[in-house]
């Protein structure tokens, strides 16, 4: 039996939105779905048991961080990342390419906030060449060369179900020539990644430490439609990829990001599940599922929780538990939420935990935010299946 399968179950009649089932050796993912970031083989302030109780379907971990600590061989000796962190569901790893971008240029968040001024390059990134990325470890300063072949080897050891080709994520402020040169290099890296991956010439028989794996290609090209067209053609025609991911710069504003994602998604067929790298705030998800995005990943739900912000059903999207207005509020975060935090604790108590710097506060808000994101995705899937996505979005924000 094929270990991997992608099946679209329903198309919206008013948009490109769709529901589907993404089958992996460690279980099925009902899409659209949110992938929670366990960057260093751990979800921040939350165990995998709690994540499962809050209906999480899939977790992402990071190749770059895990290669440095604890090292991918140790993970392989455990039988893969699933056993290492005691998660028996589907997993995805990125290739480490994003860290080339973040070490050299900053974060995606900086771009979407509209900053067009390049940050000084980190001293950790030495150079990007045809061979790969040469950088110093942030842990001990040791120099490493991360190549497409090494990225795939590390991801084999980590053992996630879904893995990505090695690429460079270009920032917004570079010119078109740099973006094009980077894209063509990423395409060459992609071929090298696929060659290293397809030792057995059958992506369903490529074994990692935890069993079969499948490979995603990454669509690059920055904000330039003609470059995106070339990258789409390259990825679709290569024949190597189970899924496709949208990467690279998505512009310097939300509006530009939406425009670029809509353009790319409109050019894709139904053969591949489509993942959007690094984007996943609730307001974004409502827009982006309408263009056919199947999976999202973002650190936002757990990062917000660590700063005392709880997700809610408003256009603003969150409240800050640390604000004094919640000091005497006996209501839960959301009276209609069925998560364990809202079922058992008041805003007043949560406010107290953060003011007292009690770690339990981080855990309780994280639990709520994970539950919230999964409830949102379930609600969106139901709306698509019932073909009333536009109406459902309006009701979501009114309820």
| The first-level CATH class name of the largest domain | Alpha Beta
Query: Distance between the terminal alpha carbons, to the nearest Å?
Result: 44 Å
Count the E strands.
18
Compute the gyration radius: what is it?
A: 21 Å
- Give the helix level as a range of percent: 40-55%
Total of DSSP H or I helical runs spanning 4+ residues = 16
Number of domains: 2
Order of strands in the sheet with most strands: 4-5-6-10-13-14-15-16
Task: Give me the CATH superfamily of the largest domain.
Answer: Queuine tRNA-ribosyltransferase-like
Q: Provide the CATH architecture of the largest domain.
A: Alpha-Beta Barrel
Structural class: alpha/beta
Percent strand equals: 15-25%
Write down the overall geometry: globular
Biggest pleated-sheet summary: 8 strands, parallel, barrel
What is the fold-level CATH name, i.e. the topology of the largest domain? TIM Barrel
Average per-residue pLDDT, rounded, comes to 91
Low-confidence stretches: 111-115, 200-205
């Amino acid at each position: 039996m094929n270990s991997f399968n992608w099946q679209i179950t329903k198309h919206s009649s008013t948009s490109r939105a769709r529901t589907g089932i993404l089958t992996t050796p460690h279980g099925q993912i009902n899409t659209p779905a949110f992938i929670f970031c366990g960057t260093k083989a751990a979800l921040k302030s939350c165990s995998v048991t709690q994540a499962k109780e809050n209906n999480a379907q899939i977790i992402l971990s990071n190749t770059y961080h895990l290669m440095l600590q604890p090292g991918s061989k140790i993970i392989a000796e455990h039988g893969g990342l699933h056993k290492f962190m005691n998660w028996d569901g589907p997993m995805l790893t990125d290739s480490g390419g994003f860290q080339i971008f973040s070490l050299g240029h900053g974060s995606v968040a900086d771009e979407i906030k509209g900053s067009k001024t390049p940050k000084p390059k980190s001293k950790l990134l030495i150079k990007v060449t045809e061979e790969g990325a040469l950088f110093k470890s942030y842990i001990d300063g040791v120099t490493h060369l991360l190549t497409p072949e090494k990225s795939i080897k590390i991801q084999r050891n980590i053992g996630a179900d879904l893995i990505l080709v090695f690429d460079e994520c270009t920032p917004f402020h570079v010119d078109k020539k740099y973006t094009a040169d980077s894209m063509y290099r990423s395409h060459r890296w992609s071929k090298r990644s696929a060659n290293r991956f397809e030792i057995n010439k059958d992506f369903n028989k490529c074994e990692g430490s935890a069993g079969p794996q499948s490979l995603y290609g990454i669509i690059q090209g920055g904000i330039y439609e003609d470059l995106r067209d070339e990258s789409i053609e390259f990825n679709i025609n290569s024949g190597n990829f189970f899924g496709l991911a949208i990467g690279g710069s998505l512009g310097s504003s939300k509006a530009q990001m939406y425009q670029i994602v809509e353009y790319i998604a409109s050019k894709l067929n139904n053969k591949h599940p489509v993942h959007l790298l690094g984007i996943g705030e609730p307001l974004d998800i409502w827009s982006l599922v309408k263009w056919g995005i199947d999976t999202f990943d973002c650190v936002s739900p757990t990062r917000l929780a660590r700063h005392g912000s709880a997700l809610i059903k408003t256009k603003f999207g969150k409240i800050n538990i640390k604000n004094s207005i919640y000091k005497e509020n006996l209501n839960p975060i959301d009276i209609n939420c069925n998560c364990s935090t809202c079922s058992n604790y008041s805003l007043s108590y949560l406010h107290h935990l953060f003011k007292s710097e009690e770690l339990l506060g981080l855990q309780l808000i994280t639990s709520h935010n994970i539950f919230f994101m999964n409830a949102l995705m379930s609600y969106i899937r139901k709306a698509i299946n019932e073909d009333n996505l536009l109406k459902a979005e309006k009701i979501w924000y009114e309820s």
